[in-house]
Design goal:
By secondary structure, this protein is of the alpha/beta class. It has 2 domains: 3-67 and 104-174 and 276-378, FAD/NAD(P)-binding domain (3-Layer(bba) Sandwich), CATH 3.50.50; 177-274, 2-Layer Sandwich (D-Amino Acid Oxidase, Chain A, domain 2). It has helices spanning 12-22, 48-56, 60-64, 90-93, 104-117, 162-167, 232-235, 239-250, 257-262, 292-295, 304-321, 325-354, 358-378, and strands at residues 3-7, 26-30, 43-46, 68-70, 72-76, 87-88, 99-103, 122-123, 128-134, 137-142, 147-150, 152-155, 175-186, 198-202, 207-212, 218-223, 266-275, 283-284, 287-289. A 7-stranded mixed beta sheet has the order 6-5-14-15-16-13-17. Strands 8-2-1-12-19-18 form a 6-stranded mixed beta sheet. A 3-stranded antiparallel beta sheet has the order 3-7-4. Helix 1 runs parallel beside helix 5 (104-117). It is globular and about 65 Å long. The structure holds flavin-adenine dinucleotide (FAD). Residues 7-13, 30-33, 42, 44-45, 126-128, 156-158, 162, 181, 271, 291-293, 299, 302-306, 308 line the site of flavin-adenine dinucleotide.
Length: 406
């Protein structure tokens, strides 16, 4: 059986391992950190396209048990006025579509449990340092002096990927986007409207998003601007320091952010925002990249995790259906590159819109109103929006296109 070394036990890695096992391969996951390391308290959204891809490998149900359902989104100006009504996720992604809002640590834990439940080994404390490749075999070397041999190596090792650098020593570094992400939770607040709806506020100085958990807590994040890339010491500042700074950002706005941030009792350590627009080489000599290792997306798109899941499932289909592993990897890149680079570009436009001046803000608000009016006019039974309405059919074969002949 074909042995696959999956490097990284975040999101793309566990899903890739499960999808590859379903496709008839023999995967092993190697994760750098000890199993207790993923304490990240922040939250994220798994979009309908991510849930659709998870359903291909029977992972949608366990993920849907985490966090809460987000049935709609809405946009607001800095003075608190609505730019849009609550826009149902169904009109963007088809009947029954929802977004799942969940804590990152819960998602990682659940995916790893599902890997173990399927009998796929996960080895912790295995930080990849190098890969040797010859005669159709790969050897992964780890920091602890051990190694593992296989027929294919999947680099699911995130935005600072070591595998990316091994495939191409000249591969680009992530691009800093000029903002940081700060997360918090305000306990038991009264806020307007239906619980679960993602409410996006374009504050004058910072973007702010909040959603009410059905238990009454309000989960939020803000994107304080930081023109130059913060260093590690700044990012380690205590949460309460950040809270005071964020309160100041919203003092002149008329949105609920000020009250919510002031009332917050939980803060997670903020992180700087990056993306990775174009990685020239996704695969070489039995090694391939998935998820953030290949194409990190600004968090403002709410898509990085979902697209990483899509990658993992489509990679498994491509190697399942191709005559050779090399042909499968070529097909995978062919299927994925245009879509993911389009989503990276959309994420960057979101960041630029959030950082624009008064005139730019007017233009942005005009386009948001118009875009969502057009989407809402179509209704849930019309063509789904390209990003959220993406669908994968596990049983359809991934065959080479006539255009490339691969
Ligand atoms: C603040 C923030 C908010 C976000 N919000 C959203 C959101 O709402 N929705 C969304 O879809 N996406 C969101 N994203 C993006 C999303 O988190 C990423 O796109 C997603 O985690 C990518 O998954 P991955 O498996 O490729 O990488 P990761 O989740 O980063 O996993 C990589 C794994 O590889 C391991 N690893 C790294 N190096 C090595 C090595 N050398 N050897 C072995 N293992 C290694 C790491 O320990 C880690 O476990 C957000 C990102 C950030 C930073």
């Amino acid at each position: 059986m074909t042995r696959v070394l999956v490097i990284g036990g975040g999101i793309a890695g566990p899903v890739a391992a499960i999808a590859l096992q379903k496709a008839g391969f023999d995967p092993v996951v190697h994760e750098a950190f000890d199993r207790t390391a993923d304490q990240a308290g922040n939250f994220m959204n798994i979009a309908p396209n991510g849930l659709d891809a998870l359903a291909c490998v029977d992972l949608a149900a366990p993920v849907r048990r985490l966090g809460f359902v987000t049935p709609a989104i809405a946009f607001y100006r800095s003075d608190g006025h609505r730019l849009t009504p609550d826009i149902s996720t169904e009109v963007q992604a088809g009947p029954g579509a929802v977004i799942q809002t969940l804590r990152r640590a819960d998602l990682y834990r659940t995916l790893r449990e599902e890997v173990e439940r399927r009998g796929i080994p996960i080895q912790y404390g295995k930080r990849l340092t190098d890969v040797e490749s010859a005669d159709g075999r790969v050897r992964a070397r780890f920091e602890d002096g051990t190694h593992a041999d296989g027929d294919l190596l999947v680099g699911a090792d995130g935005i600072r990927s070591r595998v990316r650098r091994i495939i191409d020593p000249a591969a680009p570094e992530p691009r800093y986007l000029g903002t940081v992400n700060a997360f918090g939770v305000a306990p038991k607040r009264r806020v307007e409207g239906t619980p679960g709806v993602l409410r996006m506020y374009f504050g004058r100085k910072s973007f702010f998003m909040s959603a009410q958990h059905p238990d009454g807590d309000v989960w939020w994040f803000a994107n304080p601007p930081r023109p130059s890339e913060p260093d590690a010491a700044e990012m380690r500042r205590p949460g309460m320091d950040w809270r005071d700074e964020i309160v100041e950002l919203f003092r002149r706005d008329g949105m609920p952010a000020l009250d919510v941030v002031r009332a917050s009792t939980q803060f997670s350590v903020p992180s700087a925002n990056y993306d990775l627009p174009t990685v020239p080489h996704w695969h070489r000599a039995g090694m391939v990249l998935v998820g953030d290792a290949a194409h990190a997306i600004s968090p403002t798109a709410g898509q990085g995790g979902s697209v990483a899941i899509e990658d993992a499932v489509i990679l498994a289909k491509c190697v399942r259906d191709a005559p050779t592993i090399a042909a499968g990897l070529a097909r995978y890149e062919e299927v994925r590159r245009t879509r993911v680079e389009g989503i990276v570009a959309q994420g960057k436009r979101n960041v630029d819109g959030n950082l624009s001046g008064p005139l730019g803000r007017m233009v942005r608000d005009f386009f948001i109103r118009r875009a969502f009016r057009d989407i809402a006019a179509k209704g849930p039974d019309n063509t789904p929006v390209w990003m959220l309405g993406h669908h994968i059919d596990w049983d359809t074969r991934e065959v080479a296109s006539a255009r490339t002949g691969r």
